[in-house]
Amino acid sequence: DSGVTQTPKHLITATGQRVTLRCSPRSGDLSVYWYQQSLDQGLQFLIQYYNGEERAKGNILERFSAQQFPDLHSELNLSSLELGDSALYFCASSVEDGQETQYFGPGTRLLVL
Amino acid sequence: AQKITQTQPGMFVQEKEAVTLDCTYDTSDQSYGLFWYKQPSSGEMIFLIYQGSYDEQNATEGRYSLNFQKARKSANLVISASQLGDSAMYFCAMRDAGTASKLTFGTGTRLQVTL
Predict the structure, then answer these.
(1) Integer Cα distance of B109 and B115 in angstroms
(2) How far apart are alpha carbons B95 and A105 in whole angstroms?
(3) Measured between CA atoms, how close is A99 to chain B, in angstroms?
(4) pLDDT digits (tens, 9 = 90+) for A27-70
(5) Residues facing A37 on adjacent strands
(6) Which of B6, B45, B107 to mutate to test the interface with A (most CBs of A within 10 A)?
(7) Which residues, numbered 42 to 61 in chain B, qualify as contacts with chain A under a Cβ-Cβ cut-off of 8 Å?
């Protein structure tokens, strides 16, 4: 158990809908990262927050947004969902914003029908 | 651009044998970190081992060791005394100054441990 929690574990929804994925980092970790794992794109970095502020952005679609709250938990919002958004979404956390190890949560498996 | 290459889509190893999973990387930065993660069929990503570019010794964590050859830009994972529970996908990843904090992952190697 990495100490990173993600909810829900599974999510099935329809095209055009909006969902929110939630992540709680390990105790004491200030950085939260979101990654998407799909069959065709592999593991891709989406976005990073550090202590409540956006720190880095990767291949995140405009339909997707994220935030980190004062208690350091983070939410990833996915809207106007398409079939191609079906993937495993991981949250990871690290202590700071440097070269530390990122510990991954169990992931949220999203299926868009 | 930063790139991680894992050329072995799948590997088989017999229980109790050692196995090496290959990883080569490309970066123009002097400071970078290399990571290996394990992803069992249940889906979670488990951190295994880390090697910093300035570390002089190869990293070891239990049965896992990282064969770091800086000049060749390779960071192979060695698993000794394989166990059935080692059957999983293994991902090599890198972070360097150019990528800020994000990890760049390879495509993974699926390891199957047989009796």
Answers:
(1) 19
(2) 19
(3) 7
(4) 999 999 999 999 888 999 999 999 999 999 998 999 999 999 99
(5) A43, A88
(6) B45
(7) 43-47, 50, 52
